[in-house]
Structure formats: C-alpha cells, structure tokens
Amino acid sequence: MHIEAERDDCIAAGNCVMVAGDLFDQDDEGIVVVTAGELTEADEAKAREAVKLCPASALRLV
C-alpha cells in the first residue's frame, strides 16, 4: 500500500504533516509532498488518519 496525492487539489492546510510528518512534507508553497514509499504496517494507521483529515480530499491510499 502507498499514498497518492493530488497536488492540484491540495489547499495547503498541513493536516497530513501534523498527523504524519514522517510520511508527508510541504513544498515552499505549502503543497503536500509524499515522502513515504510503500507503507509499513505501523505507518498505515497514520496514513489513514491523514487521508481522513485532509479537507481537500487530496490524499488516497492505493
């Protein structure tokens, strides 16, 4: 499983970074950058929470 981000949909709220800063970052404009590759079992819960909290629905698990 991995995370995909629709950067064009991102509104730079930063919720993903607050919940899972080891899986996400933001560029100079605040747009999400996925830093994780394949998720470990331990990372899946954090990734699901980030997807759920994204106000723009810009994240998804695949």
Automatic annotation (TrEMBL):
InterPro entries: 3Fe4S_ferredoxin (IPR001080), Fe-S_cluster_ET (IPR051269)
Necessary cofactors: [3Fe-4S] cluster
Keyword Membrane found: no
PANTHER family in the record: FERREDOXIN
UniProt protein name: Ferredoxin
Gene3D superfamilies noted in UniProt: 3.30.70.20
Function: Ferredoxins are iron-sulfur proteins that transfer electrons in a wide variety of metabolic reactions.
Superkingdom of origin: Bacteria
Signal peptide region: none
Alphabetized Pfam families for the sequence: Fer4_15
Swiss-Prot/TrEMBL keywords: 3Fe-4S, Electron transport, Iron, Iron-sulfur, Metal-binding, Transport
